[in-house]
Amino acid sequence: MRVMLVDDHALFREGMASLLSAHDFMVVGMAGDGFEALEIVRQVKPDVILMDIYMPKCDGLLATRLIKAEMPQIIIVMLTASEEDEKLLEAIKIGACGYLFKKLQPKDLLELFSSIKQGESPLTPGMMQKVLMDFHGESELSEASAKPQARSELTPRQEAILSLVASGQTYRQVGETLRFSERTIKHEIKQILETLQLKNRSQAIAYAVSQGLTDPQTE
Description:
Structural class: alpha/beta
Strand content: 5-15%
Distance between the termini: 24 Å
Shape: globular
Radius of gyration: 17 Å
Number of strands: 5
Oligomer: single chain
Helix content: 55-70%
């Protein structure tokens, strides 16, 4: 997995790069602000970006918008000092798949990062509830979830996949459970997002909870 680090503190970037490289993650690029990140992303095309929220010139929110607009397939994970940061929810709404705490111990950080590799979203139950509440508050999403036909537009396979993903299973685990390849599961998730007109996996999980496909406490 090709990883890029975006943070305005050089010491933090270098330390994170050394940690990830020592555990078989390939760090393909580093940047100190969002504009620089966009230029480098176009060159190195990483699989995952660890993105700081607060940076000069171009912060993590704007950088996420710019990068996802050009390369929506790239996974962006926000780096934060606190779950209470008001910008976290906004980051998830515009395409970030979750977040990691900067103060995590190296062992815990690596475990969370490995879960990202397996297709999981690093979201705590508390943040998942915030995403769900926002989901209901957004007029566009509320309209979609209120349509009787919205859920019926999903195939039985897609409902099963969405339910398992929302319950916390990785794409690989869902594939093993339903006896499909991980590639098939990823394709179906993409189709689910397009059908429901949602932006990312986190919103799909919130939708699943709102439709009674899973228990929000299982995430």
